[in-house]
Design goal:
The protein is mostly helical. It contains 24 helices and four strands. It folds into three domains: about 110 residues, no CATH class; about 180 residues, MFS general substrate transporter like domains (Growth Hormone, Chain: A); about 200 residues, Growth Hormone, Chain: A. Keywords: Membrane, Transmembrane, Transmembrane helix.
Length: about 525
Amino acid sequence: MMDKKLATESPSDDLSPGEISTKSSSSSDISDTCTSYIKDSYDKSVSSPSIEQNGSYIVDSPSFTLDPDPPDKSIVEILASPDTFEGPPSAKDGGYGWVVVFVVFIVNVVSAGYIKSFGITYTLILDYFPDTSGAAGGWIMGLLVGCRGLLSPAMGALTVLIGPRKCVIIGTLICVTGLLLAVPAFSITYFAFTLGALVGIGMCMSETPGFLVVTDYFEKKRTLANGFRAAGNPMGGILFAPMMVLLQQHYGLRGAFIMVAGLMLQLVVCGMLMRPFHKHKQIVENQYWMTRRQSISTIDQQIANLKVQQAYQLKKKKKPLDFTFFKNPPYLVYLVMVLCTNMAMPNALLYAPVYGRLIGLTDLQNSLIASYTSCCDFVMRLFCGWIFNKKIIKTEYGFIAGLVIGGIGCLIVPLCTNLWSLLIFATMLSLCMASFWTLVNVLLADQFGGEAMASTWGFFRMTQGICSFIYPSIIGFIMDMTGGMTVPYIVMGLSLVVGAIIYALQPLIAKLPGSKITLP
């Protein structure tokens, strides 16, 4: 009967199914009472321990227990239906997230490709300035790689503050500015500022948001997504080296700078497509609630506009930088580990042509090793992303095994005497690099939280940047002292093995006071 209404025995008490009685009323009273009933029931569900944390506190799909014989099922059943209040679908692990992965892949192709092909550019720079010493010329690469890593914490904080879109666009414009300013080619010092510092800062600013955003968009498929993202790095090495040779042959060094600047400018479009996850989540929820409005359009508009889940959503604000991680022993394991592993990655690959010449390989054969390593690295990063996403092998075990295999590969280099034996080394090192770069930020997100990636990943990359300034000089010093590459490769191999051992001790270190970590 439409002239009946729902009322409580006492206006001051919570409304419950057992307290529902029937009295005459208007249709509007039914709507108001139902709204109050659902609201009060939801309040009770909020007080229950059904809140889960995933970067924000969200009430997880409440359900309402009604009296077996409610007075007016035509309205109450619709309101209490799981389909009505189960909440919007998850915005993670699919959809627009794959667009973001593709965008980050392209950014990695361009930035990593530029760095991996910089050796070709460097040789032409030395042709312009033949009196340049190795130490002076090394400042260009040192500033390029060092700034790219050292500023990662600052760029991670900037991503949190201004968003990934602005960060990528501004970083791209800085890269383009550095390349265009290099066209006059005044001196090596001038190149160190433009091609080194400016481009390094721009690349750090455009690359860092990608690591953070992919982590936000994916949870169950995070390893697979990171495999695709990380594959952009070796793909850049495959494509950029021959492209730079062709550009410099047809347009000269200055013309090549202009052409590469034009190519990098396209990353502005990639930046525009890098939608922040919280905005994407809001879009998904709005679409869901629009659909729910249509499905219950016969009910009073006040009930149709009821967005209980949004009303009770509590945002967990991210910190731009959290320095308390330096007091967390399990996180310090990562920093100590990278102090060891960065001795070999990427130096073991960069010095392979030097060893190749020592055993009589031609420049063509050395180039084949570089191309093979990039192709192998690309395939193995995709494979690692797929296999570890299937949970066939524990992520931690795969990470440790990759470092050990890479260390053994470096240790056998002094035994290599021909092209084929060096290809075995290249295969083992490729597997090491693929597992390392595919899994390291997955492990950081799983163990310390995806919302802290700006800090955990930023400090990790900063440590790598410091090592990039120091380790090449140490390897060069060992080469000068020993007169060959045998001892340097033994040192690099042992550094990878020691890094694996340090990481394997993390479960024991996690028992120390002050440890904050999520272990499997």
